[in-house]
Amino acid sequence: MRRLMTGYAVTFNKRHKRAGHLFKNRYKSVVCEEDAYLLELIRYVHLNPLRAKLVQDLNELDKYPWSGHSAILGNRKNPLVPPEEPNELNKPKEPTKSLAEKTIEDVLLHFDETQKAARRRYRDFVEKGIAQGRRPEFQGGGLVRSAGGNKTGLLGRPKEEREKGDARILGSGDFVSNILKEANDSIDSKAQWHVSLDDLVFRVCSRFRITPDELASKRRKSEISQARAALCYLAVDELDYSGEELARLLSISGRSVSDCRDRGQKILDNPKIIREYLS
C-alpha cells in the first residue's frame, strides 16, 4: 500500500504540477477478531460517503460507484471482477472466481444463503448504522469500545480486562492482549541479532563471493543482484535498518530497495538460512 499510494501521489503531483502530500494520513489496517467485528467495520466503512455528505441518502449510496456497498448490492459492476470468458467449445466450465467476487459472496453469506434475501438483509443492516454516526470505538481495541460502549454481558469482568485496547486491533480484551504479546515476541526474536550493517555486508558478500564494491556497483550479474536482494531483506525485515540507509549504501532508489526486499524474501524463504546469516 505504501508503494501504491506513494507512486500515485508522485504521478498526480507531476500531472497537476503540484508538490507536497496528497493523502492526509497513511494507510491503516486493523487486526479484527471475529465476524461480528468484521461486519461492524464493513458497515462503518461503507457509510463513510454518507457521513462525508458525498451522497445525500442511502438510496444514492446504493448506486455510488466509489464504494463496495453498491457492488455488494449488485447495483454496480465491480471493476475488479473480470468479464466472463466465452467458452468456444460449449462445454461446461467450472467458473474461476476472482478475489472480489469471493469477498462479496463471503459478506452476503453472513446474512442469508440466497443472494436476494442476503442483499435485502445486508442493506437493512447498513441502514441501521446510519443513526450511529461516527464510531470512536473503531479507533481502538477493547471489548467495551468494540461493543459500542454497551457493557451488557461484561458484568463481572475486571476493568483492566474490559478496557485493554490498541488502535491497530479491534476485538475483546483477551484478543487484543494476545495479539500484542505475539507482536512483542516477534520483536524480541529480532532483538537477539546484533549485526552491524558493515558486518552484514561482509557476510552477504562472502556468501555470494563478491566484493563490497561489486555489491554497490551498477553491474547486473546474477550473484550481485541476488546479494543485493538478500542484503535488503535481511537488513530491513530482520534487523530493522531503514530503507533509506540501504538506498544510500547501495546508491539506489527507495523503490529499488523495496523491489530488492521482495526478491530477497523469496531467496531467503527459510528460517535456517536466515539464522546462518545473522547468528
Radius of gyration: 25 Å
Instruction: Work out the strand percent.
Output: under 5%
Order of helices and strands: HEHHHHHHHHEHHHHHHH
Mean pLDDT: 75
Contiguous helical run count = 16
What shape does the CA trace take? elongated
Helical/strand content category: mainly alpha
Low-pLDDT segments, ≥5 res: 139-157, 159-167
Report the span from N to C terminus: 32 Å
Q: Please give the order of strands in the largest beta sheet.
A: 1-2
Q: Please indicate the count of domains.
A: 3
Helix content: 55-70%
Brief characterization of the structure:
It contains 16 helices and 2 strands. With 279 residues, it is an all-alpha fold. The protein has 3 domains: 84 residues, no CATH class; 50 residues, no CATH class; 82 residues, DnaA protein, C-terminal DNA-binding domain (Chromosomal Replication Initiator Protein Dnaa, Chain: A), CATH 1.10.1750.
